[in-house]
């Protein structure tokens, strides 16, 4: 591939993503009744919306909430996504316990933090231990580091010596792990943090686990009345951690935040409708092992459908797409061809995720890029093919991609769609008031030197990545080299101080030896063009 490069100094605004918050919460019989309680659910979502990893106990079985027949944790995940505007992942344990003590555990995390390696319920096996439930073990990989989280709702009765057998069995299972493994043991352990703490929890402490909370940080609510001015009862919820620096450990007292009036009166009964336990949390640092830069491409692949491309042609397209970590595709005719392409991309040892919004598709390297919000069509303006947009995060870089393929019905119609792009750009800006890194890209069928682009290019300090006359004046984004019809646009007022590499991929010369007819038939008459952005820099 002959690559034509321009270097421009620009800056994107970034969000530091090294610190994550882990929370554990006995959410108290979380099922149909609570999901139907709008006030209680509003508080649950408010409490959890700032978390990154959530470990829940007391999840009920499948429920039917207004016709939605799923497990309560699955419904919670969807509502949390609506509340935060972020994508969440969920792993749900098998049922554990007997009789009225049956429950499930749930583990939720923000998409992009890492991959779930394994999760399983482990039942206690000690012959002298009459337990009510097993414990939920999850193995996670956070950006190259292995993390194990054990979540437990321990039995609430019995002698201390018997209950210590639970910690001994868990400790024995954890002691065989590599010494450097980050370990968390969390949950409602139903044993108070008192003067006998070190003796009672010695099996966990002896393998190097440390508790996040000091004695006296109570975690449960009184049931129906305030005693001696306190709405809190016991300290039985814990986060034990090993091989981590514990930051900002806290008990999140939602009672004082949501159920105390201006006179200081607390509605303890309503608070208990949320849960009779308070969530506890801590923050930890995770590594930034994502690459320092990534390549974002845009490409109109001619009439890209499963029926129009055989295996050899699709393999050629795969060999081009695999050069890029993120790509916006235009002229996509069905989802099947994208699914086939993603399967072939696995041969390049890259794992891609994708979303199709016909006639567009987004593909991204899911090792370090995550989709923050699902793709949506714009509503303003009149277009043959309505533009689509979605938000993403690559390393520390949050950005929104807006892509469009203009009509070719007539030159007049093409120009009119281009004149409407400033309105569409502002619409997307209004959808993301706190996100300034909005990138417009696509196949526009007109170069930015023409007058119909004047309003967009006059917005702030709008930058067109490819235009003539510039240093790449001998290169077009179509294989005939006639003109620049594919492009990137972004506002340099929001984008400064970052080295960016621009390029046009002349696959037609490298793969097809300038046989434009074959290149257009098998692949496309348009070339991918790309911009290379940083993932590391901060605001």
Automatic annotation (TrEMBL):
Q: Which Gene Ontology BP annotations are present?
A: DNA catabolic process
Name the PANTHER family for this protein.
DEOXYRIBONUCLEASE, EXTRACELLULAR NUCLEASE
Family label: Belongs to the DNase I family.
| Stored Pfam families | Exo_endo_phos
This chain's protein is named: Deoxyribonuclease
SUPFAM superfamilies, per this entry? DNase I-like
- Cited InterPro entries: DNase_I, Endo/exonu/phosph_ase_sf, Endo/exonuclease/phosphatase
Q: Which domain of life is it from?
A: Bacteria
The Endonuclease/exonuclease/phosphatase domain is annotated at 24-277
Instruction: Write out the GO MF terms.
Output: DNA nuclease activity; hydrolase activity
**Coiled-coil stretches:** none
Per UniProt, which keywords does this protein have?
A: Hydrolase, Nuclease
């Amino acid at each position: 591939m002959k690559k034509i490069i321009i270097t421009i100094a620009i800056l994107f605004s970034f969000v530091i993503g090294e610190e994550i918050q882990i929370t554990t919460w006995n959410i108290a019989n979380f099922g149909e009744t609570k999901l139907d309680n709008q006030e209680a659910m509003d508080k649950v979502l408010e409490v959890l919306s700032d978390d990154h990893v959530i470990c829940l106990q007391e999840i009920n079985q499948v429920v039917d909430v207004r016709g939605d027949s799923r497990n309560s944790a699955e419904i919670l995940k969807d509502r949390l996504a609506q509340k935060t505007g972020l994508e969440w992942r969920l792993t749900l344990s098998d049922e554990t316990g007997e009789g009225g003590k049956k429950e499930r555990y749930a583990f939720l995390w923000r998409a992009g933090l890492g991959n779930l390696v394994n999760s399983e319920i482990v039942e206690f096996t000690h012959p002298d231990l009459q337990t009510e439930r097993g414990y939920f073990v999850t193995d996670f990989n956070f950006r190259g580091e292995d993390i194990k989280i054990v979540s437990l709702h321990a039995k609430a009765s019995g002698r201390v010596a018997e209950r210590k057998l639970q910690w001994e069995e868990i400790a024995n299972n954890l002691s065989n792990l590599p010494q450097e493994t980050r370990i968390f043991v969390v949950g409602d352990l139903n044993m108070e943090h008192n003067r006998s703490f070190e003796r009672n929890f010695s099996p966990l402490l002896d393998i190097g686990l440390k508790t996040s909370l000091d004695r006296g940080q109570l975690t449960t609510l009184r049931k129906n009345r305030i005693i001696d001015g306190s709405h809190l009862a016991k300290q039985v919820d814990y986060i034990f951690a090993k091989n981590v620096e514990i930051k900002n450990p806290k008990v999140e007292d939602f009672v004082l935040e949501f159920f105390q009036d201006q006179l200081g009166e607390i509605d303890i009964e309503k608070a208990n409708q949320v849960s009779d336990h308070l969530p506890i949390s801590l923050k930890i640092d995770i590594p930034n092992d994502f690459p320092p830069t990534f390549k974002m491409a845009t490409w109109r692949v001619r009439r890209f459908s499963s029926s129009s491309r055989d295996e050899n042609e699709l393999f050629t397209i795969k060999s081009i797409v695999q050069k890029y970590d993120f790509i916006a595709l235009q002229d996509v005719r069905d989802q099947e061809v994208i699914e086939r392409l993603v399967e072939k991309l696995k041969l390049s040892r890259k794992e891609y995720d994708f979303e199709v919004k016909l006639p567009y598709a987004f593909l991204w390297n899911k090792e370090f890029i995550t989709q923050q919000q699902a793709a949506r069509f714009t509503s303003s303006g009149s277009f043959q093919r309505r533009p689509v947009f979605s938000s993403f995060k690559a390393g520390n870089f949050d950005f929104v991609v807006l892509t469009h393929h203009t009509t070719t019905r007539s030159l007049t119609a093409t120009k009119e769609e281009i004149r409407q792009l400033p309105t569409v750009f502002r619409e997307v800006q209004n959808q993301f008031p706190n996100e300034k890194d909005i990138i417009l890209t696509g196949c526009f069928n007109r170069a930015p030197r023409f007058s119909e682009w004047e309003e967009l290019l006059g917005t702030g300090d709008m930058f067109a990545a490819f235009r003539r006359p510039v240093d790449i004046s001998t290169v077009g984004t179509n294989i005939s080299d006639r003109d620049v019809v594919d492009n990137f646009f972004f506002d340099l007022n929001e984008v400064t101080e970052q080295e960016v590499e621009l390029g046009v991929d002349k696959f037609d010369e490298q793969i097809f030896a300038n046989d434009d007819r074959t290149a257009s038939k098998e692949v496309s008459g348009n070339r991918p063009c790309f911009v290379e952005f940083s993932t590391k820099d901060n605001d």
